[in-house]
């Protein structure tokens, strides 16, 4: 009986050793009790994980992916602190999941000021041109209502402009207000 149990254990362990866990979708941060502030960011993180899973399952993690700022659905050329914060989280989270993400605001040269040394900019004439063609664009929109805010994220093929994957979620106005200074 022990021999059979030992053989089964060896077979089970051998089978498990062939598993490759290359992309761990668990946060390295310790679990916290959710608060209103955290829950809005958690919803965005879960939506980004959904998009990352699509990229990984379709072999697109090498991208590179360009993350565009989330814009207000009523003013596509405008964003806010809220949209920029969710964009930053999306960019970081995709990179943490093993996706190659380009930083579009990287300067050609470092700017030195009394406030510090800066390598990011929003000035079009200071941005370095990427030397690698973009494969996928990650972007989205948000709409602010009186009781809730709806966020729409999507992955778009940079060549064909075809939407590859999308996801939408809502957060309460209270969650939104805590994310916006």
Short structural description:
Helix content is 34%, strand content 27%. With 181 residues, it is of the alpha/beta class.
The biggest beta sheet is recorded as: 6 strands, mixed
For the secondary structure, the number of strands is 8
Contiguous runs where pLDDT drops below 50 for at least 5 residues: 1-37
Name the CATH superfamily classification of the domain at 33-104 and 132-179: ABC-type transport auxiliary lipoprotein component
SSE string: HHEEHEEEEEEH
What shape does the CA trace take? globular
Short key terms for the protein model shown above:
181 residues; alpha/beta; Rossmann fold; 27% strand
Write the layout of secondary structure elements.
Layout: H1 2-17, H2 36-57, E1 65-67, E2 71-72, H3 81-96, E3 101-102, E4 106-113, E5 116-120, E6 136-144, E7 148-157, E8 163-172, H4 173-179
Parallel strand pairs: 1-3, 1-6, 2-6
Antiparallel strand pairs: 4-5, 6-7, 7-8
Descriptive notes:
- The strands form 2 sheets. Strands 1, 2, 3, 6, 7 and 8 form a 6-stranded mixed sheet that branches. Strands 4-5 form a two-stranded antiparallel sheet.
- The chain has a domain at 33-104 and 132-179: Rossmann fold, CATH 3.40.50.10610.
- It is globular, with a radius of gyration of 21 Å.
- It has 181 residues and is an alpha/beta fold.
- Mean pLDDT is 77; it is low at 1-37.
- Helix 2 packs across helix 3 (81-96) and helix 2 crosses helix 4 (173-179).
- Helix content is 34%, strand content 27%.
């Amino acid at each position: 009986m022990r021999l059979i149990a030992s053989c089964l254990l060896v077979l089970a362990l051998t089978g498990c050793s062939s598993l490759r866990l290359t992309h761990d979708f668990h946060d390295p941060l310790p679990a916290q009790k959710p608060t209103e502030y955290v829950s809005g960011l958690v919803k965005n993180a879960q939506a980004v994980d959904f998009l990352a899973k699509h990229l990984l399952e379709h072999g697109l993690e090498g991208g590179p992916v360009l993350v565009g700022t989330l814009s207000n659905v009523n003013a596509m050329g405008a964003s806010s602190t809220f949209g920029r914060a969710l964009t930053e989280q999306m960019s970081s989270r995709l990179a943490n999941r093993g996706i190659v993400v380009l930083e579009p605001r990287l300067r050609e040269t470092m700017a030195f000021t009394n406030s510090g040394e800066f390598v990011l900019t929003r000035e079009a004439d200071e941005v370095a041109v990427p030397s690698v063609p973009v494969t996928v664009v990650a972007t989205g929109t948000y709409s602010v209502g009186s009781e809730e805010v709806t966020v729409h994220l999507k992955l778009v093929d940079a060549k064909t402009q075809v939407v590859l994957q999308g996801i939408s979620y809502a957060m309460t106005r209270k969650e939104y207000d805590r994310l916006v200074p």
